[in-house]
Amino acid sequence: MIPAEFDYVAPESLDAALAALREGGEDAKVLAGGHSLVPLMKLRLAAPALIVDLRRVPGLDGISEDGGTVRIGAMTRHHAVATAPRLGLAARAAATIADQQVRNRGTIGGTLAHGDPASDLPAVLVALEGAVVVRGERGERTIAGADLFQDYLTTALEQGEILTEVRLPAADGWGAGYAKFNRRVEDWAMVAVCAAVRKAPDGSCEDVRVGLTNMAGVPLRAGAVEAALRGRSLDPSAIAAAAEQAAEGTDPPADLNASADYKRHLARVLCRRALEEAAAAA
Amino acid sequence: MTPEDGNGHGLHVGRRMRRKEDPPLIQGRAKYVDDIDVAGVLWAAFVRSPEAHARIASIDASAALARPGVHAVYTGADLDLEAGLPTAWVPPGVDVNAPVHWPLAKDAVKHVGDPVAVVVGEDRYAVVDAAEDVLVDYDPLPAVVDPEAALEGGDLVHESLGSNKVHEWSLGGDVESALEASEVVVERRFVNHRTSGAPIEPRGIIADYRAGELTVWSSTQVPHFLKLFLALQLGMTEDRVRVVAPDVGGGFGSKLQVYGEEILLAWASRRLSRPIKWIETRSENMATSHHGRDQIAYVKLGADRDGTLNALHVKIIADFGAYMMLLTPLIPSLGAFVMAGCYRWKAVRTDITGVMTNKMATDAIRGAGRPEATHYIEVMLDQLAAEIDVDRLELRRRNFIPKEDFPAETPVGIVYDSGDYHGTLDKLLTHFDPEAERGRTADGKLRGVGFSTWTEICGLAPSRATGPSGLGVQAGLMESALVRVHLTGSISVYTGTSPHGQGLETAFAQIVADRLGCDPQQIDVMHGDTSQGPWGLDTYGSRSLAVGGEAIARASAKVADKVRAIVAHKLEAAADDIELREGKFSVKGSPDTGLTLAEVAGMAYIPEDNLPEGMEPGLEELSFYDPENFVFPFGAHAAVVEVDPETGNVDLVRYLAVDDCGPAINPTLIEGQIHGGIVHAVGQALFEQVSYDENGQLETGSFVSYALPSAAELPSFETDRTETPSPVNSLGVKGVGEAGTIAASAAVTNAVIDALRPLGIDFMNMPLTPMRVWEAIQEKGGAPA
């Protein structure tokens, strides 16, 4: 498993990293935790000429809260996200990523910038209406989660931009549920459904968010499920009825482990389970 | 369950002892091929076919050759070998239609990964880049993928052979009359799918030809086989060839092979007068280390309504892939030898048809033919039990060969050495209540229990059975041992087996220690270097203890005899009166006057007047051991599964195994083998499948798509043993390396079917993946809420 030849730099500031990226042009790639990019390079499915490693760039790591918004540095490891208080659904999903070794190395910024629809956090970002902050030559801009993922492994990040921060709403008052189906615990999801539920004082569903993983080339939001449940009862039959709409409008690609029909079926089952968990936790 | 320790075999034999070989392995100080540096080494990288079947129109290596540091690019046209790669077993008395198999494809490629060219150069990375610069123009040909369709005619894998059929081979006599006389005949079609050995260390080779001598380091199970075939292929004499198998990170049968890369690197090293190294990548391993299983079987079982078994007829179509490798045509036959299982039958017959397809060759993978056979027998027993409404355990008990019948000849002419099949099943049932494990859980899961009561044939092998006048394997399969006591009393033991993870260094040391009165830690077990010790036959087929260990016991006994004679001479006693007691050889009844092994060794090497008249000095003995028969371990296994009827997911929640491999040498090592073996078969039953699409493209090229299970997917296994000695060897031992793999796929499959019967599902083929289980449930109208 020998990658093609590449140059490597580990700049010590964000500006230096941006400069290196600019110099490298379209053949340059940013390296965060390496758990998506490096395997692709070893298989020669990716062959960047320049690797810009962010590990020495200060200020990209850590979790802080700012008026109801949680700011997560792009280089924050999955383990830190999984064990952080007040991250709710993001923590719940991050705790299921692959195995402990991967969670100790992989980063939230890396997984979102990579844009693999089978990985856990993209659907969470979309469902929770989070955003990412990116820095480029022209300065800083914010991209809404809904706009970030454009196609399979393709995001709205432009050449020369670095994802620096992830913003998610604080999880106060929300219950989180995550139902992932895979054959082995360290596998990517065959299908996963993330759900967040906030209850009204009478116990009904005040608000709900549902995201679908690996049901398309990009993470999806199950709008029909949300609409069916928002403002309604959270009893099991209502949840089950809403979950029946989880696969509505989806056309998931078949793979070795799952046909499109099976994926749609799994989405419905997992949606019910995720909602039940979220409702119980709310 | 904790197996009983200390069966009174000796001070060390029969007791738990930590593996002597482990400290370097767990401290990262082991020496694999990739850890070996040879000065001046060049690196090799292979250009492999992306096509399943194609004519090679042209190869342009000019760009690769122009890269700095590239010394050579060789293609099939450059090869000047006299013969293709070896197949060691050709079934006697039947026509075998086999292609010539070159280390580099000549004219055409026959499967994805078929090597087309090798690039040799100075830098490990640069040769991989250069290999990408070798331009091969392929004219695609139709890929033959379905083995049954391949037998019907149409496209050919090898046009010159005129047929895709390799051979037909049968074992067992007339089975039709016993089937016709049966009150019930159950018929099923099995697909026993293709799997990978998937060792964590892929293959690796260094070949160093210099001054007329060849040294090859290879991550292999079979250094002696490789030495022999290197000599034959390269036209050298054996004394000029040395093969070293250093630490080997798993084989599972996939390294019981003489690979084209091994021959080719040696050939190229001779041609370039430079050592050459190659380390296989995981992608190459998945595509080009031989695969296993891959059978379709049409099985008919005849019985009476009271549960009396009459006849078993198994027709196997074995997908051999594109080439016959070292033992390819033998593998299904190994299953035929034990197709009677643990049961009394009037007739048993196996008909095998070998067929070629445009896939990697199949060959021995842990169990090799016997997991398939056990799967057919044990799943069929459950199918019959349901058909005639007889309890499946009662059915087994009623038909077990009773222990007083051993040695027992089966209808296929194999003589089982010893067994107590009731004993292992009875003991299994002391550990759990199957009925309490079954039914529907509070959260709607379906629980099922499955059994496998199995036996197998191992301890390869008596030469009379396997040699040229027997089955025609071109090897005697005996084993050697040399026990050398040094001047100071420390011991080196040379074995012709080639341990690669089994813990045999520890087991062998325990055997020697008991016979010579020393500490197992003082004993070095040497293996894997053909320049040390006598000719050996390596490690596979659960043979190393039952054949290699017996050779060591015999060589040790010879040393002990000499020690007794020396001690008797010194103490003026009769040799028969000398006993080994508390680390000293002493006259019976006078323990205080005894001599230690170190003292005797000193006398043996400094004879003066220490030795009896006429005795030669020195203290080492050699034994060559050719067993009288195979050995037949057996056991009773049970799996408990939980099926999620909504998703089709199967969760293995308990696995219980009672095994009998004769008296334990070291219970810890047995458990290690049983655990690993079970995982291997659970992998086949629930997770693993080497998959080619309809165009012959490999779909499982890495561990992402090839679902090797991890500890997280498995329960902690519950194991126990009984001990029924084999009369075949003095240790009474039987092999255990393949036992779990041979037993477990049927237990898991039967458990899943047991769980699904309430939904109307009464039969399924492996792998029991979530989607397949879900689809089976959908076909029956879905799961009730």
Description:
The complex is a heterodimer of chains A (282) and B (785). Chain A is 32% helix and 26% strand. Chain A is α+β, with helices and mostly antiparallel strands and 282 residues long. Chain A folds into 3 domains: 7-53, Uridine Diphospho-n-acetylenolpyruvylglucosamine Reductase, domain 2, CATH 3.30.43; 63-169, Uridine Diphospho-n-acetylenolpyruvylglucosamine Reductase, domain 3; 176-281, Enolase-like, domain 1 (2-Layer Sandwich). In chain A, the strands form 4 sheets. Chain A has a 5-stranded antiparallel beta sheet. A 4-stranded antiparallel beta sheet of chain A has the order 11-12-13-14, with helices on both faces. The mean pLDDT of chain A is 97. Chain B has 785 residues and is of the alpha+beta class. Chain B folds into 3 domains: 22-29 and 479-625, Aldehyde oxidase/xanthine dehydrogenase, molybdopterin binding domain (Aldehyde Oxidoreductase, domain 4), CATH 3.30.365; 33-141 and 202-248 and 255-288, Aldehyde oxidase/xanthine dehydrogenase, a/b hammerhead (Aldehyde Oxidoreductase, domain 3), CATH 3.90.1170; 291-461 and 629-779, Aldehyde Oxidoreductase, domain 4 (2-Layer Sandwich), CATH 3.30.365. Chain B has 20 helices and 29 strands. Chain B has a 7-stranded mixed beta sheet, sandwiched between helices. In chain B, helix 6 (223-234) packs across helix 7, helix 10 (370-388) packs parallel to helix 19 (739-756) and helix 15 runs parallel beside helix 16. Chain B is globular. Chain A binds chain B through residues 1-2, 4-5, 43-44, 99, 181, 183-188, 190, 256-259, 262, 265-266, 269, and chain B through 124-125, 128-129, 132, 281-283, 646-647, 649, 687, 691, 699-700, 702, 704-705, 707, 709-710, 712-713, 769-771, 774-775.
